[in-house]
Specification:
The protein is globular, with a radius of gyration of 17 Å. The relative contact order is 0.14. Helices cover about 45% and strands about 20% of the residues. The longest helix has 15 residues, at about 105-120. The strands form two sheets. The protein has a three-stranded antiparallel sheet with strand order 1-3-2. Helix 2 packs across helix 3 and helix 2 packs across helix 4 (about 55-65). It has helices at about 10-15, 20-30, 40-50, 55-65, 105-120, 135-140, and strands at about 35-40, 70-75, 80-85, 90-95, 100-105, 130-135. It is of the alpha+beta class. The chain folds into two domains: about 5-85, Arc Repressor Mutant, subunit A (Orthogonal Bundle); about 90-140, Ferric-uptake regulator, C-terminal dimerisarion domain (Dna Ligase, domain 1). Strand 2 and strand 3 form a beta hairpin. The protein has six helices and six strands; from the N terminus they run ααβααββββαβα.
Length: about 140
C-alpha cells in the first residue's frame, strides 16, 4: 500500500506537525518495503536519498507516524520491530518460523478472540497489527 493513498500531509498538519522532506523520505522508505520493513531497511533506503538523516531522526519520525496511525508497527519476537504503512482495515499476519512465508489475516478473524479476552480478563485489546508465528502447511509436512 502506498502512503500516497493516505492524506498523510493533512494528518501531520492537523496534528500540529510540519511536513518535512525528511519525514516524506522516511515514509517513502517504509512504503518501498511493501509490507513489513525493519529500521535497518528504512535507514538504508533513506540514506541513499539523504545522507544527513540519522537513525534518531528515523526513530522519532516512525514513532510519530505510528501515533498518528499512518504506520503500524509489530514486534517480530526476535528483538526486532517491523513497520508498514497503515491500511484502511486493521489486519494481522501469520508468519512461518521455518520458511518465512507470510499470510495476512483480517481483523474479523481475530475479533472473537479479542472479545473473549475482554469478557474473561476485563481487558480491552486495541492491537491493530498482530503477528502470530508458527509453521505453514508446507513446513509442517517436512
Amino acid at each position: 500500500m502506498s502512503h500516497y493513498k493516505l492524506d498523510y500531509e493533512e494528518v501531520l498538519r492537523a496534528a500540529g506537525h510540519r511536513v518535512t522532506n525528511q519525514r516524506v523520505l522516511i515514509l517513502d522508505a517504509v512504503c518501498e518495503g511493501e509490507g513489513h520493513t525493519t529500521i535497518g531497511q528504512i535507514y538504508a533506503r533513506t540514506r541513499m536519498r539523504d545522507r544527513s538523516i540519522d537513525r534518531s531522526t528515523i526513530y522519532r519520525a516512525l514513532k510519530l507516524f505510528v501515533e498518528l496511525g499512518l504506520v503500524v508497527s509489530a514486534d517480530t519476537g526476535a528483538d526486532e520491530v517491523v513497520y508498514e504503512v497503515a491500511k484502511p482495515k486493521h489486519h494481522h499476519h501469520l508468519v512461518c518460523r521455518r520458511c518465512g512465508e507470510e499470510q495476512e489475516v483480517g481483523q474479523e478473524a481475530m475479533q472473537a478472540m479479542f472479545e473473549q479476552i475482554g469478557r474473561e480478563y476485563q481487558f480491552q485489546v486495541d492491537t491493530d497489527h498482530l503477528i502470530l508465528f508458527g509453521l505453514c502447511s508446507d513446513c509442517r509436512q517436512l
